[in-house]
Design a protein that fits this description.
Elements lengths: L7 H12 L37 E2 L4 E2 L22 E3 L4 E4 L4 E4 L8 H10 L13 H5 L44 E7 L10 E6 L4 E6 L1 E2 L2 E2 L7 E2 L9 E3 L4 E4 L4 E4 L18 H10 L13 H5 L8 H4 L13 E2 L5 E2 L2 E7 L9 E6 L4 E5 L5 E5 L6 E5 L27 E3 L1
Antiparallel strand pairs: 1-2, 3-4, 4-5, 5-11, 6-7, 7-8, 9-10, 12-13, 13-14, 14-22, 15-16, 17-18, 18-21, 19-20
C-alpha cells in the first residue's frame, strides 16, 4: 500500500494539533476506565470512521466476483467505499493516522499486565512526546482492517494477513515456543467492561489483530495477571465521542460520524422469514437494499467499524438493565439461550475471512451479553457472559443454530445465525 502524503502546510498543522496539551480521553492509573468521558474539543469535532479495507466479495461460503445491484449478496461491505486508510510513517517510531488525528506507537514491545500498561503510559517517551496514553476501545478499533485472515486453528502464519496494516505497524502473532497460541495477539485498551465476564471476573476490552475480534478479557487469569500487547496513542482525545440527534422521524443522526441510523431495529419491522427481525446474513442484505423509510431509499447494512461506533461501553444488561447503546435507540428484547431476557447480536456487512477465499462467517456486534458455554473439567456446560456487551465476534452466515448446542470455540461462543439488524445511511 502506497504512503499517502499531505502538503507541507497540512503536515505542520496536523503536528501542531496533535501536540496541543489537553485533557485526555484515555486512561491513567487513577481513571475508571470507562473510556467515554466528555472532553474538550481539540481536533475538529468529527469521529471519522476508517474503512475496513475489505475489497473482496463473498457469498455464504467463499469469495465471488462483484455482485451487481439487485442480485444476491449485493450491499455487503466491499460494495461501499468509506474513508480509506491514510497513514504517514513519521520515520521516528510513530505512525500518524490522517483520518482520525491519532498518532500511534509503531513497534511491538513485550506483553504486560493492564496495570503496567496504564502506569507505563505516564512515563513513556517516544519521538520527543510524553503525552502517550493507553487507547480506548474505539481508538484501538480504528486500526482494525478486515482484509486479514482469522488464523484460529492454523499451524503456520507464513501466508496469513493480520487484521492491522503491516506496511506501517509492526505485528507479532502469539509465541508458540512459550506455550501461546498463534491467536494470542490481544492488545489492551483502557475501556473496562462495566459488568463482569466468566465467573464474576473484572474485565477489560481488547482487540485481537490475529483473529479479528473485540473481546472482554479477564484482568486476572488463573490467579495471575493476563498479559497484553500494548500500542500507545496520543492526539485527538475526542475520538470515539458520538453526537446523536433524534430527527423525530424514526431516525437518529450522529453529527460526529455523519451517519444516520434507524432508531428501531429489524425486530420492530418484523423483518425476515421468521417475522421477528432475526435473519441470516443474505436475508439482511436483501432487506437493507430494499428498505424505504423516512423518505430515504439508500439504507444499507453497516460495516463492522460503523456499527461498533454506536456501542455505549458505559451500559450493559447487568449494570444498566439495557443493551450497550445510547437510550435514544430502541432495541428488541430477546430470550437468550438460557431462557433469560437479553438483547441481540447485530449483523454487519463485513465478512470474517478464514483465509484462502473462505468467507462462511460474518461479523456481528453484541449489544447484549456476549454469551458462551464454558465447559467444566467434568464435562458440564455453563452459559455465561464470556466476552461482554460490546464485543465483536462472528457467526456462520447460514445454517441451523441447533447444530451448535454448546456454541463454538474455546469459550463456546453461542451461535445464533439469525441475528438482528440496524441499518445506516450516509448523511
Amino acid at each position: 500500500m502506497k504512503t499517502n502524503r499531505l502538503d507541507s502546510f497540512g503536515m505542520v498543522l496536523l503536528s501542531l494539533l496533535i501536540s496541543i496539551p489537553v485533557m485526555l480521553n484515555g486512561c491513567n492509573k487513577d481513571d475508571d476506565f470507562s473510556g467515554d468521558e466528555s472532553v474538550d474539543n481539540t481536533f475538529d469535532g468529527k469521529y471519522v470512521i476508517v474503512d475496513t479495507d475489505q475489497t473482496t466479495f463473498y457469498n455464504n461460503q467463499s469469495s465471488i466476483s462483484e455482485p451487481s445491484s439487485g442480485t444476491s449478496f449485493y450491499g455487503q461491505d466491499a460494495n461501499y467505499f468509506g474513508n480509506q486508510l491514510n497513514y504517514v510513517d513519521n520515520g521516528n517510531g510513530t505512525i500518524t493516522d490522517l483520518n482520525t488525528g491519532l498518532m500511534w506507537q509503531q513497534s511491538v514491545d513485550e506483553k504486560m499486565s493492564l496495570d503496567d500498561a496504564i502506569t507505563g503510559a505516564g512515563s513513556y517517551n517516544l519521538a520527543g512526546f510524553n503525552d502517550w496514553r493507553l487507547p480506548t476501545i474505539k481508538e484501538l478499533y480504528s486500526l482494525i482492517i478486515f482484509s486479514g485472515d482469522d488464523v484460529s486453528g492454523w499451524t503456520t502464519v507464513e501466508a496469513a494477513n493480520p487484521f492491522i496494516e503491516t506496511d506501517y505497524f509492526d505485528f507479532e502473532y502469539g509465541d508458540e515456543s512459550i506455550g501461546e497460541r498463534l491467536i494470542d495477539a490481544q492488545y489492551a485498551s483502557c475501556t473496562k467492561y462495566v459488568g463482569t465476564t466468566m465467573d464474576g471476573d473484572e474485565t477489560v476490552f481488547g482487540v485481537n489483530f490475529a483473529d479479528g475480534r473485540i473481546k472482554g478479557y479477564p484482568v486476572l487469569m488463573n490467579g495471575s495477571d493476563k498479559l497484553f500487547f500494548v500500542k500507545y496513542v496520543r492526539g485527538n482525545v475526542n475520538y470515539g465521542i458520538n453526537n446523536f440527534v433524534d430527527n423525530n422521524d424514526g431516525t437518529i443522526s450522529d453529527l460526529n460520524t455523519e451517519l444516520m441510523w434507524l432508531q428501531d431495529d429489524s425486530g420492530t419491522f418484523e423483518a425476515g422469514s421468521n417475522n421477528d427481525g432475526s435473519m441470516n446474513w443474505e436475508e439482511t442484505l436483501e432487506w437493507a437494499e430494499n428498505l424505504e423509510f423516512a423518505g430515504y431509499t439508500d439504507w444499507r447494512l453497516p460495516n463492522a467499524k460503523e456499527l461498533q461506533s454506536i456501542v455505549d461501553y458505559t451500559r450493559s444488561p447487568s449494570t444498566s438493565n439495557s443493551p450497550a447503546i445510547d437510550p435514544v435507540f430502541n432495541c428488541t428484547q430477546i430470550t437468550d439461550e438460557g431462557g433469560d431476557s437479553n438483547y441481540p447480536f447485530y449483523w454487519t456487512g463485513t465478512t470474517h475471512s478464514g483465509g484462502e477465499g473462505l468467507g462462511n462467517s460474518a461479523v456481528y456486534i453484541a449489544f447484549g451479553e456476549a454469551l458462551g458455554f464454558m465447559e467444566s473439567p467434568f464435562g458440564d456446560y455453563t452459559l455465561m457472559d464470556v466476552h461482554g456487551a460490546g464485543a465483536q465476534r462472528s457467526d456462520p452466515k447460514t445454517g441451523n443454530p441447533e447444530d451448535y448446542p454448546y456454541g463454538h470455540g474455546p469459550q463456546g461462543d453461542v451461535i445464533r445465525i439469525y441475528n438482528y439488524v440496524r441499518l445506516v445511511r450516509d448523511i
